[in-house]
Structure formats: C-alpha cells, structure tokens
Amino acid sequence: MSEKPAGADMPEETVGSQVSPMSQGSSMSDMSSMSSMSAVWQSSPPGSIYDYIRVASFALGPDGRIAQWSERAGELLGLTANQAIGRDPVEAFVPPEYQETGQRAVADILDGREWTGLVPYRNPRTPSGHGIAEVYVMPAQDEHGKRAALCIAVDVSALRGLETDLASSQAVFGQSPLGFFLFGTDLRILRVNERFAKVFGRPTEEYRGTTPHDLLPRGEADRLAAALRQVLDTGQSLTDMPIVGQAPGSPDRRRWSVSLYRLHSGSGRPIGVAGLATDVTGRRRAEQEAAGVRRNLALLNEAGARIGTSLDLETTARELLDVAVPQFCDLASVDLYQGLLSGDETPPGLADGSAELRRVAFASAVSDGPVAYGDICRVNTVEDPKPIQVGEVHRYPFNSLCAHALRTAQVRVVPGRDGSEALELGAMLQSTLVVPMVARDTVVGLAQFSRTKGSEPFGERDRALAVELAARAAVSIDNARLYRREHERALILQRSLLPPGDPEAAGLDIACRYLPGNAATEVGGDWFDVIELPGHRTALVVGDVMGRGLRAAVAMGELRTAVRTLALLDLEPAEVLSALDEIARGLGTPGGSHAGARPGSRALVRDGKAAEDSSDLTEVYLATCVYAVYDPVTRRCTFANAGHPPPVLVEPGEDALLMEVPPGLPLGVGGEPFEEIEVELPDGALLALYTDGLVESRDHTLDEGLHALRAALNTPDGADGGNAAAGSAGSAGSAGSLEDVCDHVLSTLDTHHGEDDIALLMARVQGLSAESVGDWRLPSAPQSVGRARELAREQLESWGLDELVDTTELLVSELVTNALRYGEGEIRLRLLLDRTLVCEVWDGGLVQPRRRRARDTDEGGRGLQLVGLLSAGWGSRRTPLGKTVWFELALPDGQASGPDSVEALLSLW
User: Fold this and answer.
1) Three-state SS sequence of 360-392
2) Cα–Cα distance between 304 and 628 in angstroms, integer?
3) Do the beta carbons of residue 523 and residue 549 sit within 8 Å?
4) Greatest extent of the chain over all pairs of C-alpha atoms, in Å
5) Which DSSP category does 724 fall into?
6) Distance between CA atoms of 435 and 423, rounded to whole angstroms?
7) Cβ contact 735:509 at 8 Å
C-alpha cells in the first residue's frame, strides 16, 4: 500500500478546515482571523484528551492486511511496524479463539461498512496476557480507488479509567460545599460550581467568559488577576490569599480565602488555573473578636501596672492617657473637679454636674496640641472654637452631654460631626466616649476618648473597657486625693513643730537640715530646735522619737513643746532631761499617769488590770535627745544626753572629734539620773548635733557612720571651707559657708537609704566680744541705784544707743531698787548688746519676783508693771548663788520709737 500524504490520519473535517479558507478566496478579515488561528494551532504544544487515552491508529489495505502502523499501535499491541505491516491483523494480535469472528468482521469492513466494537488482543504486559481494545474502523480508498480501511484502537481500561476520573471530578466539583472555579489561560472563567454561583447570585452558565473585574471591586480584582497570572506563569501555587468584596444584593463586606494552582494536560502543557474560595467572614470576625479580647486584656494588664504608680493627681491622669493613646483611641483628655485639686474636704462635684473642672491631661496621636474635639459637649462651640487647654478651669453647661454624664455617672457616646464642618471643630472624629470617673460612688472627674475618621467606631466591648480604665484611674485619683489631704495635715503638723528655716541665736551661726526617711509621707519623729534663753543664751536641741509616721510626729510634737516649756524655766540641761523623761513616761499610759508602772515598762491599765498595748506604744513614746545651752558671754556650753549619738566638735585647726557626753538612758525609760558636762568653745568652733539616721543604716554600722561624719567635717569642702578658713581669718565665717558645710555633709554621707529620718543642726561659735558686754558689781547700798543709772547711761552712749538711755535708766533703777529691798548680798549689773539689748541684775536672794497689779491707794508695787510696759520682755531665773532679774529692749531702727516712759508711768495710775 502506498504511503499516505500528511494529514491522512486526521478526520476529513479537520483537514478540510485547515486548507479550505485559502482555497476559497475569503475576505481580508477572515484571512487575518484564520491566520491567527493557524498560528495558535501550529505553536501550541501537543496535549489533549488523547494524551490521556493513548489512541492508536493503523490502516488496512485492499487485501485486508496491515498497510500502515503507528508507533502508538506498537505501544498498545506490542508489535513493531516491521512485525505488523503486511500481516493479517486478526492473526497478528487477535487470540486464536476469536480469530474466526475477526475474519468475518474484516471482510465486512472491506465491503465498505463502518464497524465499532470490542476486540480482544494479546497483551503480554497484563497479568492475564491479553486485553480488550475498542476499535473504530472507517472505510477508505487507496490511491487507486480500491477499498481500504482506517482503524483507531483504544484500550478499554484507559477509557474506563477516564470515565471514572471524570465522574469523580464532576462529583467533587458539583457537590462540594466550597466554591470551585476554573480560569482559562486567557484569565476568563471556564467553569464554576454551584456553591460559587450561589455566593454571587448568578446561574453557573453565566460565569463562563467573565473576568475578576466582573465580580470584585477594582482593587481586589486587580490583585486576583495578578495572582492568577503569576500562578499561570510560574506554576507556583498560592494559598490563603485574602479577598474582600460584597456579594450581589448584600451591603455587608465579605471576606474570602482563595487558593490557586495551575492545571496541566497529560503532556504537562498549562491549560488554566483552578481555584478554591472559602468564605471566612465569620472566622475573620471571630478572630477579630478574639484579638480584641486579647488586646483589651493586655491593655487592662498594662493599666494595672502603669496607672496609680504615684499618689499624685496629675500624674495619675497622665498615666491613664499614656495607656489609652494610641492603643485604645486617638485622642483623650481628663478633667478633674477643681475642688478635688484644691483639697476641699467635701465631695468635689455639684449634684447637677456643672461644677468647675480643670483639664489636667491631654494626649493625641494625630496632633501636636489640644483641639476642640473634647468641646463637643460645650454649647456655642462655633462662636467660641478655642479648645480647652491643659490647666484651664472650665464648666460644662447643664444641658450638655458631659454634664449629663457627670450627673448620672453614665457613659455617653457622641458620634462624629458632619464632614462639612471645620476639622478643628471635631469633623475629624469618628466617635467619642464621655466616661465619668467614679470612685467609691463619687464622681471625681470626666475622661473623654475619641477615635478619628478611618478608625473603627467604639463598640460595646470598647465601652466596657473605657469604663474599667476610667474606674481604675478614678480609684487611684481618689486615693491620691485622700493621701494629699492627710499628707497636708501631717505636713502642717510636722512643719509647725519644727523651727523656721533660718533660726537666729546670739553668738551662734546656725544651719539646719531635715530629711524625711520616707519621701512619700515626709512625716517622722526626728526634731531639732533652737530656743532663745535669757541673757542671750541659746538652747540647742536634737531629738528622735522611736518609730515613724504620724504617731511618731505627734509624740515628737508633745515632747518638743515640753522641751520649750522646760527650757523657758531656765533649768539646767540635766534637769530639763529628767523632767522630760517623766513627761515621756506619762505619755505612754492612759491619762498621762505613770504611777504603778515599773521603770522601762509600757504596760497599760485596762479595767484595773495590766495589759500589753497591741499597738506597741514603746516604739512611739521612747525617744533620745541631746540638750545643750550655750552662753555667748562666757563661750561655755553645757551638754546633757538621753541615749542620743554624741555631738561632734571641730575646733579651728583641729580634727573633728566626738564629744564625751555621758550617754544616759532614752527618755521614757526612767530610773536613772542624767549627767551634764560643761565645755568651753573657742570662736570659730563648729558644733554638729544630729539624729542616728545620718550615721546608721543597714549598709553600715553606727561606728562606720560616725567615722564617715568626722571625715566629712575634716575635708576641705567641709571643715576647711567653713570652719578652718573662718578660724584662720579670726572670724566665724559667713552664714553661707555653714550652709555649704551642711550640704557637703549630706552629700558625702548615705542620706538616701530611706530607713529613718535625718535631722542635722550645726552651729558655729562666734561669741560676744568684750565691747558688747558691760559688767559691774555694786555694793548693797542705796547709793548703788544712782551708780547703776550712771553706768548704764555711759555704756549706752558708748554704743550709740542714746534713744534707749532714758528707758534703760528707769528700768535699771527699778531692778536695782528691788535687789536692795528684797535681795541679799552684792549686786551685779550686766548689759549685753547683740540683736537686742539685755540688762541683768544679779543678787543673792532666793525669792523670785512676782508681778502684781497695785491698787490705786498703794504707794508702791508698780515697779515690775513698769518693766513689763516699757520692755520687750522680762523675767527671772535661778542661779547657783541666788537669782537674776532681766529685761530686754529692741534696738532702735530709726523708724519707730519704743513706748514713752512718761506715758507708761501715767498709765499706772
């Protein structure tokens, strides 16, 4: 049989469609279209359904023998072309038992009849050794017009497998609850399943030929088209690509998760992109809900750690906003009642919510400064668009939402404004939460949280979170309010019990420091005092009540008051401490009585029985104290100590040393007398009294602290700068230099341990010069009165105090006359000039003068009344050999004169 031309194995329709357009003179457009189709057909790689079923073809000649044999026929039937061509096809590959039937079939075929049927054939590759092929025979003619046949054979098992695959694919594609779709290489939909069609509300056949832009918004469609093209070009699958859009007829935004993969033919040629779309809107919403809950829990956890770290109102408000912005909102502010900030005792707000508020904090993640966002509750905002500044005091009108929230303690949600308004008036806002800050059923202020356009509006969960944040801040603010109130009371008490910042004393340069052990309370039991005594003497006191806090401060105040009272009685230092010990013992028992209590015991009497006080008053009412009296005329200082650390003395040119003052027992223990010593202090000497908080802590022992204190006073910045320099110059130095010494000591030693209060009292000795003292002894004779007046006049004139001569002469005459009349022995007259003028008259009598009001008929008894009228102060004190009566006059300042002596005399009658 002669060889067939190319295309002979193809159906006639195919061959005709390939050549007929050119043979028919088609129009130019048809030619162009067909040319394009021909080019696509020629350039496409092989691959179709025939690749899956492996179709074999061969031809029979007029003699019924095989004339042509394809390679696939060889693969299917197991014969090569050399083995098959020229042979009877029945004998070649039909089993013997079927050959007779095969011969009749071939004869019918050669008679010009088509035939299709199942033909058994030998197949050594199968376990049974034979297979079944479906053969399709088409009559044909050779080049001589003789009968021939074209045969197409397909293995039946391949067809059955293809049918099974198609049925399975159809079942998955059509019955799956997920949306399947198939795009061709032109990125147009070839097929979708019912689930996909139901989502977009069209019949399945209407999707054929559509593109992503026909189904989705432009932005999402562009993303999907680009993903399809990428998968088609690269063959790399894409999973869980999020797509957002709206289903037809539904205003709700939906979210899908799309997975894409490329489809191939049996030969590996890309034929399109398949996809699987899953509606994850509900899952996404649940994820957002869960994420929101986690975010809120994290925010509450952060709020618990950051809000309320200090007992300061403004700081707490700022901490609230630091937590809220930008994690919770874009803008926020806090307004607190003005009464709350000013420390009013009553609850801060008025019942109608229109009380004055102060904006204490503002935070923004979208602007640098306050805007009028929070003023949405103010009326006439358009006429008064200026925003509320931090620190500004303002009111919300009665009818405003903010005032309503304050009145009812209920959260109000304020929607954003119309976009036509100016941005600075709130059009930038999405919504605002107006949240009253409630603590212990009391509204303390108002918090406002706002989100700008583009953010999600506040929901119920956000509302609950805002209430919780505001409540936490409100409790901290109320705690700060209560603390501030109590703290201010304690500070008033503490500061009222301490001397002024710059105490003055004759012959002494004074500097003092007080550091609370707890910076949060600033209240403790340490104290110091500088008490002016008659004769320009000065008492220096430093004490320490055991314990801390308000109770220790109260006990300290009682003891300090007692010290001042005892000091004004002009008792000796040891006597002062003994009397103070009795007072301290009485403070620890009911009614102030210590009768029946053993020394050192703090037992209380309750219902006639001794009981230990559970609050441990021993810690509160035991105290240590050092008491010193300095006389600037003699430059001698007398010390007594009740269990207190010893004073430190630094003499000019010498190292600092601890004074050997007998320590004694603490106040409140009782049972032992106190001793005292007297020390002469040279000019320029530096005396330091302190409490144990300065020299003792957990980090070092008392001995180490005392050594460090002495070293600090010996350093050039300490003793040399303030003491040695003064000594070398022969003067006491300036007050500022002593202040520097205090600062140097506190900066050198460990004063920030926070374990105990620290009190430091430093005095530099200056003494009164001989020119400032007039001292005379007079006999007990009437002539001494006139002599005393002369001596006083001469001394005052030498001091340039002529304005005080007459008054001084009159009062000196009265005191010397009383000494002659009621006293005994030699009379001593002394004038002291320092910040005031002091006159003292000494005698050996023990009877103290007593001032009384003389009757109109009395001829005498008005001398002490006259002294009281003309002097700034007067008094008497005991001495080892008698008594001293003194008076004090203020020095003239050139502006106002003292009481007129003549008028004072006339006023006595």
Assistant:
1) EEEEECCCCCCCHHHHHHCCCCCCCCCCCCCCC
2) 52
3) yes
4) 186
5) I
6) 23
7) yes
- Helix ranges (H only) for 513-597 are 550-568, 573-587
Mean of pLDDT values over 69-77: 83
User: Rounded distance, CA 738 to CA 688, Å?
Assistant: 11
CB 566 within 8 A of CB 799: no
Phi, psi of 149 (to 5 degrees): -150, 145
What does the radius of gyration of the chain's CA atoms come to, in whole angstroms?
A: 57
Spatial separation of the C-alpha atoms in residues 9 and 148, rounded to whole Å? 13
Res 124 pLDDT > 80: no
Helices 313-324 and 460-497 meet at what angle, rounded to 10? 160
Residue with tokens 């399709």: 136
**Beta strands 758-765 and 773-778, pairing class:** unpaired
Cβ atoms of 494 and 438 within 8 Å: the answer is no
Output phi, psi for 260, to 5 deg: -125, 145
**Distance between CA atoms of 424 and 215, rounded to whole angstroms?**
40
Task: Please tell me what DSSP assigns to residue 583.
Answer: H
Structure tokens at 818: 């009383």
**762 within 8 A of 510, measured Cβ to Cβ:** yes
Residues 6+ apart with CB under 8 A from 899: 807, 869, 870
**Mean pLDDT of the 185-189 span:** 89
Residue for token pair 């409140």: 668
In angstroms, the Cα distances linking 104 to 64, 115, 167, 376 are 11, 12, 36, 102
Separation of alpha carbons 886 and 831, rounded Å: 10
Counting Cα atoms < 13 Å in the Cβ hemisphere of 650 gives: 31
Q: What is the pLDDT of residues 194-242, one digit of tens each?
A: 888 877 777 888 888 888 888 888 888 899 999 999 999 998 999 888 8
Q: Decide: helix, strand or coil at residue 908.
A: coil
Q: Which of 807, 832, 772 is nearest to 532 (CA)?
A: 832
Sheet holding 179-183, edge to edge: 189-192, 179-183, 270-279, 253-264, 238-246
Strand partners, 889: 837
| Closest listed residue to residue 534, CA positions, set 573, 509, 498, 571 | 571
CA atoms within 13 A on the CB side of 158: 15
Q: Which of 430-444, 458-472, 705-719, 818-832 has the lowest mean pLDDT?
A: 705-719
| Number of residues that this document lists for the chain | 909
Contact 190, 271 (CB under 8 A): no
| C-alpha–C-alpha distance, residues 619 and 549, integer Å | 11
Q: How far is CA 108 from CA 87, 97, 147, in A?
A: 18, 19, 11
Q: Which residues contact 893 (CB under 8 A, 6 or more apart)?
A: none
The answer to whether 71 and 55 are in contact (CB under 8 A) is: no
